[in-house]
Amino acid sequence: MPAHEPDERLRLNGYVEKVTAKGASSRDEVLREVAAITETDYFRTLQEKACRLRATE
Amino acid sequence: MATTIAIHSFRGGTGKSNTTANLAALLALGGRRVGVIDTDIQSPGIHVLFGLDEEHTSYALNDYLWGTCAITQAAYDVTARLEGGGSGQLFLIPSSLKAGAIARVLREGYDVGLLNDGFGSLVTDLGLDVLLIDTHPGLNEETLLSIAISDALAIILRPDQQDYQGTSVTVEVARKLGVPRLLLVVNKVPAVFDPEAVKARVEGAYQCAVAAVLPQSDEMMALASAGIFALHYPDHPITTALKQVAATLVDQGGGPLFSCL
Questions:
Q1: Half-sphere exposure for B16 (CA within 13 Å, toward CB)
Q2: Dihedral angle at the C-alpha atoms of A7, A9, A15, A18, nearest 10 degrees?
Q3: What gap in Å lies between CA A54 and CA B18, rounded to an integer?
Q4: Which of A5-14, B140-149, B226-235 has the lowest mean pLDDT?
Q5: pLDDT higher than 90, residue B165
Q6: What pLDDT score was predicted for residue B174?
Q7: Which residue has the higher pLDDT, A9 or B98?
Q8: What are the structural domain ranges in chain B?
């Protein structure tokens, strides 16, 4: 890991923060996408299958 | 009892297949019987890392899904690729490279239920300790099935805004499927980033453990999928980090959801 100037590190960390903070602003969008997947019969069938699988382990 | 591990990424180009191949090799070097199945039928690639070409494969996963062979007939012993190291065994179940076979999958699809049966047969018939599933990027029936039946899921992402939202969706879906172990691997991190800062931010954003932050590597790029990185660079920090990821994924003592924060 190369050494950084303090302002460079702040800038990079700021970038990382910006990348990860995107989740907060698009949380509704994520939930909509999750719902589109999970509110399907196929997904419910998978959920039941996974539940049965874990119960037998 | 065998451990089934899905390696997934929401987008392509994250290094998923490379990571899968390295984890498989490291687990086999550690003495386990390991199977790797390439379910990225639309864009197969992991066979390249194991030096398995079309000339040396009679059957592929596609043939099993179309009912023309048993899945074990599409399993190839690639233990020799470990170059004599370790006491384990390594099998690869490749997807077909033939353009016609790929086009047929895109055109006709396949019975995802058969894939599930195939996973079970591989574990039983090959006596596997670990089955690694190299998934197709994104979320479709096949990837959802792979996630649902897995004991552990590793999601590979880059510190890239385009990876971020899809990974959020995948994490949420995996939680709803009750995947016992869920962890993230941040890959191709530029050298100018502080790995600890990346780890902390990603863990905070996803509320999920980051098993490794792997740097963008010139050595990896130069190897260009011509082999398994961990074998070429056994003492490299990336190899050390991948060993830790492998150990975490197969750790039987972690208990449910241990890796979620």
A1: 32
A2: -90
A3: 29
A4: A5-14
A5: no
A6: 95
A7: B98
A8: 3-250
Q: Which of B139, B168, B176 sits opposite A23 (nearest CB)?
A: B168
Say whether residue B102 is in contact with chain A using an 8 A CB cutoff: no
CA distance B5 to B2: 10
- Residue B110 corresponds to which amino acid? Y
Confidence at residue B110, expressed as pLDDT on a 0 to 100 scale: 87
Query: In the numeric block, which tokens belong to residue A34?
Result: 């999750």
**Residue given tokens 């011509």 in the structure block:** B226
Residue B194 token pair: 């502080």
pLDDT at A9 over 70: no
- Classify strands B181-189 and B210-215 as parallel, antiparallel or unpaired: parallel
Arithmetic mean of pLDDT, B130-150: 93
Q: Which two tokens stand for residue B152?
A: 């552990």
Polymer length in residues for chain B: 261
Residue type present at position B51 = G
On whether any CB of chain A is under 8 Å from the CB of B120, the answer is no
E runs forming strands in B18-171: 33-38, 76-77, 89-93, 130-134, 152-157
Q: Does A45 touch chain B (CB under 8 A)?
A: no
Class of domain B3-250: alpha beta
- DSSP line for A19-46: HHHHHHHTHHHHHHHHHHHHTSHHHHHH
CA atoms of B61 and B217, how far apart (whole Å): 31
A21-53 residue pLDDT tens: 554 457 788 888 888 889 888 899 999 988 888
Residue of chain B whose Cα is closest to the Cα of A55? B178
Contact B8, B143 (CB under 8 A): yes
B188: tokens are 């191709």
